[in-house]
Amino acid sequence: MTEQTIALVTGANKGIGYEIAAGLGALGWQVGVGARDGQRREAAVAKLRAGGADAFGVPLDVTDDASVAAAARLIEERAGRLDVLVNNAGITGGMPQTPTTVDPETVRAAVEVNVIGVIRVTNAMLPLLRRSASPRIVNMSSTVGSLTRQTTPGAETGPISAAYTPSKTFLNAVTVQYAKELRDTNILINAACPGFTATDLNGFRGVRTPEQGAAIAIRLATLPDDGPTGGFFDDAGVIPW
Ligand SMILES: NC(=O)c1ccc[n+]([C@@H]2O[C@H](COP(=O)([O-])OP(=O)(O)OC[C@H]3O[C@@H](n4cnc5c(N)ncnc54)[C@H](OP(=O)(O)O)[C@@H]3O)[C@@H](O)[C@H]2O)c1
Question: Looking at the keywords, is NAD present (predicted)?
Answer without folding.
Answer: no
